[in-house]
Automatic annotation (TrEMBL):
This is Alpha-amylase family glycosyl hydrolase. It comes from the Bacteria. Residues 13-415 form the Glycosyl hydrolase family 13 catalytic domain. Belongs to the glycosyl hydrolase 13 family. Transmembrane segments: none annotated. It comes from Demequina lignilytica. Pfam families: Alpha-amylase (PF00128). GO terms for molecular function: alpha-amylase activity. CDD domains: AmyAc_OligoGlu_TS (cd11332). InterPro entries: GH, GH13_cat_dom, O16G_dom_2. One of its GO terms (biological process) is oligosaccharide catabolic process. Keywords: Hydrolase.
Amino acid sequence: MDPDWWRDAVVYQVYPRSFADSDADGLGDLRGVISRVDYLRGLGIDAVWLSPFYPSPLADGGYDVVDYRDVDSRLGTLADLDDLIEALHEAGIRLIIDIVPNHSSSEHPWFRAALASPRGSEERERYVFMEGAGADGSEPPSDWQSHFGGSAWERTPDGQFYLHLFAEEQPDFNWSHPDVRKEFLAILGFWSDRGVDGFRIDVAHTLVKDLAHPLRSQPTIDSLLPEDGSDPLYDRDELHQIYREWRELFDRYDPPRMAVAEAWVPASRRVRYASPESLGQAFNFDLLRAPWDAAAFAEIIARNLRFADEAHSSSTWVLSNHDVVRHATRYALPDGADLDAWLLEGRPLGPAQALQGDRRARAAAMLVLALPGSVYLYQGEELGLHEVSEIGIQDLQDPIWRRSEGRQKGRDGCRVPLPWTAAGRSFGFGANGSHLPQPRWFASHAADVEERDPGSMLSLYRSAIALRRLLRTEGGVSGLPAVRRDGDLVVIEREGGLTSVTNFSSEPVRWSHGGRVLLSSSDLTSEPTIPGETTVWFGELHESSIAEEAGS
Ligand code: NOJ
């Protein structure tokens, strides 16, 4: 089997509780994913990244894990997971699962034992317990902040504090403890033995902290990190010792297991996580934060191609995931808009805004699919879903809402269960309701509607992914592309004959370099122009390949 399959893969993120519900309890599950494997095959993806399915009290959407070797009973069983692996593999699709090594759930047996044991005990050493500051020890030990708002320290009934960089139900492990290191190696081995093909490593940049006394001040969360690894909490060089051990384990399998780091670090530091001795690949989140702007996109693309090449890795391209406002909506709102404020207002987009978002989202999808490297898609983006801003506060699940004391609504708006059919109580998500309310406008984005419409977002994704595959195998498209900005145009020229041109302005721009049009994200009216907010692929494929592709 090709050990490098992941380098150019199109990976589809499944957030299992919101994908498909097979048992009518309103929560998506593994049998639900199995029931949609044909859809995934039809989309043409190479791999699924499955967000956490482990037993969890759901304090943070499953990123609070009680048992790293099991399946939450509401989502199925280990046997269902085995069946999912088999069904995906039969469809030629690999499976990447989420590993959450920075913290467990506060319901994890180790943390329960730690709370039940006295200060200074071996049980407490596996987490980060400390005495408080101030004359009577009632102040948090440092000014460290939780990503979800408030202090990163929680006091226990006996007066000690424990560290949680996320919710208080997510205590941080102490990665200097040998039990923690051993346990995660065993967990990675457990899943690799079961046939899982790779791992997405949750907050891979946070595991190791500088806990030397006195604790250093770090009152901001990780937005502006130093480039020398000197932050007390994030992106420390010692992390890569851990990942080197993991790499040794991954490389014992055939093909080696892949890993991709979720590391919110400066682009120049990403190479460390992406190097072959470490995790091998790292998410590049630059496009998640980029405005709709040709110069910004061209610079990000060129820079990340360079970094990935330096790391002997391949780049990754991400427009959306389960943590951010969906990109169709980001592109619908004015550049620089305060997304939290917009969510709090709870007003849906106006029709003209939504159309602009759709048009740009189509162009952006084709732009990233023209690039070498792995493209990570988030469930529902292929249906052109927008963020659901209308969720009432009584229905919010994200701990961000509570911990920010109502200043931020959080991430539920991109986690609303998918619409599979225009009709039905939960738009075909399941036979019953859905754990987050779906808006009425989901009907027009339902998969069964889009399947019948050659102009839909789903049809565009299918065509672009199929062509991408064809261009690689039959067109011989390979290597690093030339990336060029020409005014409002971003031009990607790939060896082997694919040229992708994206027009970021809303007006048509002349483009007379010719070439045969393979695909366009909007209707082409008068050549030789690229319509506003459109990507066009020009290429050299043989007639027969194109005919086959059109017929498939
Ligand atoms: C990153 C995950 O993507 C996010 O959903 C989660 O809340 C945090 N890590 C904590 O695990």
